[in-house]
């Protein structure tokens, strides 16, 4: 049995072994385990019961990672995505006043759509249509969005009637503790400490309790808490309220976030073919889409691949066993669900800020010296956090890209899908302005 497994996961070809794969899986888990604390905190703002959100987060991450490891055989771990969870809560639920059950229905539909386009091959057309510089701008914009949510949660950024936003009170104990946590997490990252964000979250949580800044009311949790969210999604409501735009955003961001992460991890692991193709791509996309569908049924936002998987690759992980080990650890983490609420905002806020800052590395791929590229990328980058909407930033970026290239007479016949999307986004903005 052991030799059969080693043959299936291609240990010999990849030059790996059980010890290396297990340690790599543990390393990946430590670097992304912060999601067990951060994702429920974000979803709780939308009204999702926190114990249930924690259990759903762990279960979805376990299912997605194990599925990826078994069928795609890549050291790629999955969990509810940062950025998409913020969009789910702060744009869809709070800004648009959509119930979280209906929002979960939209997530489910986006996963089904992902499965459908994977089956018929439409994803290649979309990939060719969107310029990679806009992918980079979307990732950076999501990073700014996440960081802004963290600043607000920490009390560092507050409402100002004159300037919309202003600086909070740095003498506020919660704000000061959050800033100290940010410095600690960043320092640990600089030292390449595994699990830096998780260590920082736990350290700030301990300090908050010691200083009397945290409060916790015991609640039910664990796997039993899933009864509050499992199969509570409202699919008819998502269809009836015309949330196709939201479905598209969930789908679009998940698609390109997954592919971007996949390329980064595959390159780091040396798994990209000489012709730049990625083996078993359909299986990877199938695992990602299926995990999103599963996650919506369990009660969490869109599940996607995590760039933190590169930590496991750096530790030697090369096969799907790395992802399976990570998934099993997430499964075990369900046991701590009743205690997740002991983590205060002062601990999760710096994690959001740090993760947001790290996502900005993608903007280095943008050709800022080229106006045709810089203006659409800039609009995408800044309008995501400024309008509190990924859809708005993405829409302006695509419209600007199409308009400027039309003006410069750099239109190519193969870009027809990009111009179609630009027209659809323009129609959307006109419709929103008229209603």
Q: What is the domain tally?
A: 2
Order of helices and strands: HHHHHEHHHHEEHHHHHEHHHHHH
> What share of the residues does DSSP label as strand, in percent?
under 5%
Share in helix: 55-70%
Rough shape? globular
Instruction: Give me the count of strands.
Output: 4
The biggest sheet, with number of strands, parallel, antiparallel or mixed sense and barrel status, is: 2 strands, antiparallel
Task: Give the end-to-end Cα distance, rounded to a whole number of Å.
Answer: 63 Å
The chain-level structural class is mainly alpha
The rounded Rg comes to: 21 Å
Count up the helices: 20
Low-confidence stretches: none
Order of adjacent strands in the largest pleated sheet: 1-4
Q: Write down the overall mean pLDDT.
A: 86
3D architecture notes:
- The chain has about 425 residues and is mainly alpha-helical.
- The chain has 2 domains: about 1-360, no CATH class; about 365-435, no CATH class.
- Helices cover about 65% and strands about 5% of the residues.
- The chain has helices at about 1-10, 10-15, 20-30, 35-45, 50-70, 85-95, 100-120, 120-130, 130-155, 175-190, 195-210, 235-240, 245-270, 280-300, 310-315, 320-330, 345-360, 370-385, 390-405, 415-435, and strands at about 80, 155-160, 165, 305.
- A two-stranded antiparallel sheet has the order 1-4.
- Strand 2 (about 155-160) and strand 3 form a beta hairpin.
- Helix 3 crosses helix 16 (about 320-330) and helix 11 runs antiparallel to helix 17 (about 345-360).
